[in-house]
Design a protein that fits this description.
The protein is of the alpha/beta class and 407 residues long. The chain has a single domain, classed as pyruvate-formate lyase- activating enzyme. It has a 7-stranded mixed beta sheet. A 3-stranded mixed beta sheet has the order 2-1-3, with no helix packed on it. α9 links the parallel β12 and β13. The longest helix is centred in the last third of the chain and has 17 residues. It is globular, with a radius of gyration of 23 Å.
Length: 407
Amino acid sequence: MKPIEPAAEPVAPRMVFRQVRVAGTKPSRGVRRPAAETIETAPDAAPSLARAGRGATTNPAVRFETQATVPCDDGWGSLEECFAELPPLETVLIRDHSRTAIARNTSPDIGFDRSINPYRGCEHGCVYCFARPTHAYLGYSPGLDFETKLLFKPEVASLLERELRRPSYKPKPITLGSNTDPYQPVERRLKLTRQVLEVLLRFRHPVSIVTKSASIVRDLDILGELAAHRLVHVFLSVTTLDPALARVMEPRASAPGLRLRAVTALQAAGVPVGVLAAPMIPGLNDAELEAILKAAADAGASRAGYVLLRLPLELREMFEAWLREHMPQRANHVLSLIRQMRGGALNDATFGQRFVGTGPYAELLSQRFDRATRRLGLNTRHTEIDVSQFRVPDAPMAMAEAQMSLF
């Protein structure tokens, strides 16, 4: 893993690229662009970019760019030859120079209005991740770039402390993991999430955490203390109990069994913990819903939830390409079921519907979830997070000394 700006990947010998204009985009006013052919997507014959340990099988163009390059055959069979054995992709760390730590949202169907993401992009490589399209805002592809070009915020803890110290700040629970996983593999080395938790503990600030990584147990000391003050909730995402399916869908996330062990460890430490069966993908893992919920209850979870697969923007084509690569015989059936739950489309971003879907299949999934949680005793008790304990501690010594040096 190299904390440097990514260099351009070498082009294989005899590879031919042609420049194309991305459909639906327009050149910036006053800027002349080279002549380019306009196409809707890359040619159907483009080889897969699937690599061991990575989730995406494609690396679509950034939707905000007016032009992109696509590989094409030079007439000598070079395309197939050049893509026959692709080299492994290293994970590259890129410094994020954000000036704030807390992100805000006003979505009416989300139960929190603020979140912190120490990382942008996620090495877990989950092919279904709804956050993938956000990488385009940074100039990177939502495909393989999302899981190999990671931005990290080295000053996230100090930025957070500065925001919490503002006289106008009003405390409400902050969510960690709303976009990308706060405990993805790079956290073991950088410990940015742990630094954030240390700040929140000092300020007695409430926090909710969502992750699919068993490495969260590393921070049991802080989480236990937060729990003693009723300041934390944790949710582990469990998509499947099948290790083989998990390796294909979420190649660098913790194995399902390890996540359930983390649930047990959190519960034993007194940390309120739940499980999210998310996302539910019809025809792929939705048959496991009851089994996941039972495993969660057996592991010590007190709460549970589920979310239907979401496929915004580039994710629609990416997920279909992944299905046809890994499960060609099942792909059409899965896509058909998704459309049945999304009003005939592969995605529906309507507030109130985007997380659960519509139609008979979606209603059946909801009924199954309700029946299973009642039978297992999940969601019957809930520890409220306490926002009344928020306090602004004395300025750290370094900050105090810096202030005194002004006089």
